[in-house]
Predict the structure.
Amino acid sequence: MFTKQTIRDIDVTNKKILLRADYNVPVEDGRITDDYRIQKSLPTVKYLLDHGAALIICSHLGRPEGVDKKFSLKPVAEPLSHMLKEPVEFAADCVGPEATQVATGLSPGQVLLLENLRFHAEEQADDDGFAKQLADLTGPDGIFVQDGFGVVHRAHASTVAVTKHLPAVAGFLLETEVDTITEAMEHPAKPLLALVGGAKIADKIDVLKRFIDIADTIAIGGAMANTFLAAQGIAVGQSLYDKDQLDQANQIVSAAGKKGTDFIIPSDGVVAHEMKASAKTRVVRFQSDSLKSNDNILDIGPDSAKKIADLVKAAKSVIWNGTMGVTEIKEFAAGTDTVIKALTTDPKPRTLVGGGDTAGYLENRHIVDKFAFVSTGGGASLDLMSGRPLPGVEALRSK
Ligand code: 3PG
Ligand code: MG
């Protein structure tokens, strides 16, 4: 299935490897609050070390503008070292004399973690000179391994330009993500339920079109649902919605109708005047009650949650992308929690969860392992599901 060469297809022994990981993890006060992406990188890291490679690991963290220590990758070094039970060296700049000196001195089995690639604007500019500086850290016979699935939808120096300077192959996480998501989309166990939430409909149009083709039922939640409600002429008060996507929303609903794919929009919602903890909330049934002008829909209501839970129970597989409400605030997480309960209680469907906020919520609740597959990529998994090309995968050597 996976058409690109992987680390199994290339001799890594005694080589220096530039490994692109996605260690874009949440950090608070210099400490990592969620290490899921680091854990998921371990099979590749361990395989390479066990096969006598020396590793120069690079990643971005956040979206810094220039050097900004808030976005340092240093907090990753210690947990990574702890998980590997090996020391991890850290270079305070991803290119330049210090990185070159430490990289040159690396022996097989040793690990160097480089500072945030995005401290250099050249990274996001896909700059060739910067990519060559990174590639040169590996010395003669170096290899590039792409294992940062979460970032392969970006055409950056460490995903595209670098592949012009080194033999470039995939790591195991990248391979598993692409294979698992592709398989779930191309050969889903039926009935397939697609659960789509999150804020913006514009980001999800392409994936909705694909789900119309492959899913039996699509259920919508999150702020995105507000756009569908508004498109049907329901007053949504102050709720967030995409005013310029109303036609698009109606077209999606009618395309689903033509294809015979059930398209479920919430029938009720939890509303409040303010999006904050301990806000006064009430449930609104959209057909019979009306929203006040200062109401915000911040979660799906209990009827909608029950309806989706029933659909989950009838499904053999579920692909889930986007939360049903503002899960950061407990008052607006009940709809998502009801859906999660259905997804994780036996008999349960095989569920694939797209990365990003949905995965982040499951990680915070420590329930990732209750799901068949939780992607480490947000935008990347969405692009793959949508059928868009992934530049960081295309650039790798073919089998
Ligand atoms: C992510 O967290 O989605 C990836 O690490 C990519 O980050 P980006 O959206 O800032 O490019
Ligand atoms: Mg992102």
Observations:
- The first helix runs from residue 36 to 50.
- The chain has a mean pLDDT of 97.
- The first strand starts at residue 16 and ends at 20.
